[in-house]
Each structure stands twice: as C-alpha cells, then as structure tokens.
Design goal:
- By secondary structure, the chain is mainly beta.
- The chain folds into 4 domains: about 1-65; about 70-155, Sandwich (Immunoglobulin-like); about 160-225, no CATH class; about 260-335, Immunoglobulin-like (Sandwich).
- Helix content is about 0%, strand content about 50%.
- The strands form 10 sheets. Strands 2, 3, 4, 6 and 7 form a 5-stranded antiparallel β-sheet that branches.
- It starts with a strand and ends with a strand.
C-alpha cells in the first residue's frame, strides 16, 4: 500500500504514474495523507498534481521508488549428533534454517515441552522414544510459513540410565515404559507429564521415583511406578510362586497344543482367562498374587474355553496370575486400574 503526500492540498487532484502510464487517479486532496492503493510493479513513480480551479499542474518526478520483496517460505530441519545411543549419552541437536533472516528465534521442544534457550543447537540427554523438534521464527519482512516447525527426531536409547527426568505426554492407545537404575524424576521445574485417557505409562526405578508438580494422569489413563531391578522389556530369570503343601509351577513357553491368554489387560474390574491352544484342559487352577508374593485370590475353570474372573475388590496395581493345569503352567502380569 503506497501512502504519501502528507499535507496534500484541498482542491488539488493527484495522480500516480510510472513512466507515462497512469497507475491511479485522480485522487482528491484532503489536507492529510492520501493513499494510492496497492502497487505490485517495482520501479520509480511520479505524481501529477492539478489544481481543480485553476488547472495549474505540477509534475513531481521520481518522487517514489518501490521495491517488491520476494515471498520467502521459512523451513527448518534438525539432525542429531548420534541416534541410536546408549542410555546416559548427551546428544547435540542442530537446526538448519532456510530463510530465517538475520536473527531467527529458536524454540526447542522435547515431547511437546519447551527446552533450552534461543540457540541453533540443543544438547540434551534423551530417554528412549523422546521426540525432539525445533520451532523457528524468521525476522524476514516477507516470510511465509512463519514460524516453521521441523519434523521430529525420535530417539532410540538402549540400556538403563542412572538418573532420568520424564516429561511430555502419553497419548490414548499408547504404552510407554521408563526406567532408571537410581532416581527417576517426573515433571517439575515448570515442565509437565500427562497420561491421557487410554494411555499407559509405567515407571521403574532402582531406588527412587519422584512425582513433581506438573504430573497428571487423566481419568481413564494408567500410570504405575515401582522400585525394581527388572526394567522395561526385561524378564526375571525365574518366577516361582508356591505355598507350603502346594506344587510349585514354573512358567513354560506355550506351544501350538496348549496356552492361555488374559484380557483385557489392564482391567478395571474383570478379566477373562481363555484357552488358546488346540489342547483344552478340563480343570484349570488359577491363583492371583500381589507384588509381595501374597496370594490374594484363587479360582477354577472347569471344562471351559474361557472364564471371567472378578477383581473389583483388589486395589489398583500390578498382580501375577498363575495358571496351572495337568502339569502345564503360565504366569501373567495383570494390571488392575481404578
């Protein structure tokens, strides 16, 4: 938009020209600034002023110069100094910007939470499945797609870190497990960690788990933390549960001729035990144990392919379901929610 001729005289018409081609006009003077409208052609312009009473004219040559700045789309991509990495390894992320201008503004994000300062790099010690991205705002006058957001770098971290901080969120239908050999801190320092409905988050630490302000498990979600030296994806070497006078059952791998499954898991009140193999056991004995090895419930399944078990009265937490039938045995982890 070209605005000019401040203090233009009343009774005088003004026209804008490029070369000998009229671009606007006539436009009546108002005694204040007048607008010649949007101009899209670069170059030198001149103005012709004509007194509407005397018809005297005044040529104001080369009084305006217009430059057309090109439209510049902003984009940013990021790279990690290493991925995958061993737990506890600090990684440097670098942002590469197109059309960022002379002073672009950088905002790094980890799992949707703001991290770092206004720098083109971020050094951070990631947790497995961390999603790192960068938002860049250009200071160019004709920038489009501004601000621009990079794609995620999803980190693959193996092993168990000594200490970690968990931030971000677990979405509905997503299952996440976090572990630390010493201390795990969840949220805090202005950051957040949220488990959304139907999301599942498990925290395993060797010594301490600290849930700080900003931690939230929404209704219909599951979040469980406990102290153990058996971490995400690992299995205990042997799980044996017995009481005096009872036969000990050691888990064995199911075959195509025998096997069981339980569902839903997690459950908020009832789960179903189903025989999945071609072989059907007539008498199945079921025992449920708490985390400390205390038996909290027993049941039977007789001449059935499936049977519901009600655990409404059990507190929320992790349980072990032991299934025994004619020398065959399996042990399942069962998560009880609210």
């Amino acid at each position: 938009m070209l605005v000019g001729l401040a203090g233009s005289q009343v009774g005088v018409d003004y026209s804008l020209y490029t070369g000998i081609i009229p671009m606007t006009g006539p436009i009546h003077g108002t005694g204040g600034p007048i607008s010649f409208g949007l101009q899209t052609l670069a170059g030198w312009y001149w103005v012709l002023a004509e007194n509407t009473t005397t018809h005297c004219i005044n040529h104001m040559y080369n009084c305006v110069h217009i430059e057309i700045n090109p439209v510049l789309p902003v984009s940013v991509s990021i790279s990690a100094s290493a991925n995958p990495v061993i737990a506890g390894t600090a990684v440097t992320y670098t942002a590469t910007v197109t059309n960022g201008g002379t002073s672009p503004v950088y905002q790094w994000m980890v799992n949707g939470v703001s991290m770092g300062t206004n720098q083109s790099t971020l050094t951070y010690t990631p947790v497995n499945h961390d999603q790192v991205s960068c938002v860049v705002t250009s200071n160019l006058p004709c920038a489009t797609n501004n601000p621009a957001t990079s794609s995620f770098v999803v980190m693959t971290v193996s092993g168990v870190s000594t200490n970690i901080t968990v931030i971000g969120s677990v979405d509905g239908g997503e299952t996440m497990c976090y572990n630390s050999s010493q201390t795990m801190i969840v949220a805090g320092n202005g950051s957040t960690f949220t488990v959304y409905p139907d999301g599942n988050a498990t925290m395993i630490a060797g010594k301490n788990i600290r849930y700080l302000p900003g931690t939230r498990a929404m209704p219909g979600s599951y979040m469980h933390g406990y102290i153990s030296n058996v971490y995400c994806g690992q299995k205990a070497s042997t799980i044996v549960m017995s009481t005096p006078g009872e036969q000990t059952v050691t888990p064995v791998e199911p075959s195509d001729k025998s096997g069981f499954r339980i569902y839903p898991n997690p459950t908020n009140g009832t789960f179903t035990l189903e025989q999945t193999g071609g072989r059907t056991f007539e008498n199945v004995h079921v025992e449920i144990y708490g985390m400390r090895g205390d038996k909290v419930m027993t049941g039977e399944m007789r001449e059935e392919r499936s049977h519901p078990f009600h655990v409404n009265d059990l507190p929320e937490g992790l349980y072990f379901v032991k299934v025994a039938a004619d020398g065959y045995g399996e042990i399942f982890k069962l998560v009880k929610t609210r």
